[in-house]
Amino acid sequence: MSVPTGATARAGAALERAAATLTRLRRARLLHPLGRSFAGEVTIWGVAGPPTGVGMLDRPGRYPATVRLSRGVPTPDGWPDVLGLAVRMHRGEDRPFDLLVSSSRAAPVLRHLPLPRRRFAGTYSSIMSYRVGRRRIWLATLADPESVDLGRSLADVAAATRTDAPRLVLAVASAVGPWRPVGQVALGDQLSARTDAELAFDPIGNLPAGLRAAGPLAWIREHTYRGSRRARGARVQSGGSLGVTV
User: Fold this and answer.
1) All domains of the chain in start order, with CATH
2) Got the DSSP string for the chain?
3) InterPro entries, from UniProt (predicted)?
4) Is residue 215 left, alpha or beta, with left meaning phi > 0 and alpha meaning psi from -120 to 50?
5) Which of 48, 64, 118, 228 fits as disulfide partner to 23, beta carbons 3.0 to 4.6 Å?
6) Model confidence pLDDT, tens digit, residues 174-219
7) pTM metric for this prediction
8) Contact yes or no for 2/209 (Cβ under 8 A)
9) Contact of 24 with 34, CB cutoff 8 Å
10) Residue among 21, 35, 26 nearest 244 (CA)
11) Contact between residue 157 and residue 67 where contact means Cβ atoms under 8 Å apart
12) What is the rounded distance in angstroms from the CA atom of residue 33 to the CA atom of residue 42?
């Protein structure tokens, strides 16, 4: 992120205050307040073809994870909504990697836009782009055709984790290229409602080496999430503990 000018800094502070105020009025997260959280595991296979330039995505590895699925507005179960998936990959003593993706289409023209959907299935795109050197990439989770269906409601998602280990495919793409699988996200046991309420993500600060958030959406997310966290009294975990917040 570039050093903000005076006007940009003032606009960011105003956005943070607005986000904090709305969060207090809502008495919950400003964005995606209704969700369920799960223990999980992320397995990185490495990408076929040219490397991404991000060591964590190019080298095979396995990471314990915290996974949250959520409804954006939220609308009642079964109604269209912007569905969300947040994945925190714990990396020992290093800062965790927080990946936030939203329901979208897989096609290049539509992967940049959130798309309301009825079911917890299909493509979830980062919407926000990332910089790797001079290149831009997008990250996503895609439906695994061999995995159990997650259903229409958060209750359906929880039920699926009690009978199976649902999986999604982790993928990377350029602005116009196809999605290239790099790994998978597996869901495990559901976490408590208290843990879900306390969980706080930082999709801008919690990134692996070589990956930088880019574009105006990154700026909006940085200040919106910061204001919402401040109003909730939540502090992002940046150490290596498997605890989801402190």
Assistant:
1) 32-215 (2.40.180.10)
2) -PPPPHHHHHHHHHHHHHHHHHHHHHTS-SSS-EEEEEEEEEEE---SSS--S-HHHHS-EEEEEEEEEEESSPPPTTS-B-EEEEEEEEETTEEEEEEEEEEE-SSTTTTTS---BSSS-SEEE--SEEEETTEEEEEEEEE-TTSPP--SSHHHHHHHHHHS--EEEEEEE-SSSPPEEEEEEEEEEEPPHHHHHH----TTTS--TT-EEESHHHHHHHHHHHHHHHHHT--B--SS-S-SB-
3) Catalase_sf
4) left
5) 228
6) 988 899 999 999 999 999 999 999 999 999 999 999 999 998 888 8
7) 0.88
8) no
9) no
10) 35
11) no
12) 24
Nearest CA to 191 out of 239, 164, 151, 157 is that of 157
The Cα 181–Cα 162 span in angstroms is: 26
73: its two tokens: 């507005």
Confirm if 99 and 126 have CB atoms less than 8 A apart.
yes
Q: Please give the structure tokens belonging to residue 49.
A: 């073809």
Structure tokens at 48: 């076929």
Query: Which of 42, 86, 72 shows the shortest CA–CA distance to 199?
Result: 86
Over the Cα atoms of the chain, what is R_g? Answer: 17
Structure tokens at 165: 């280990």
Tracing tokens 């402190």 back to the chain, one arrives at 246
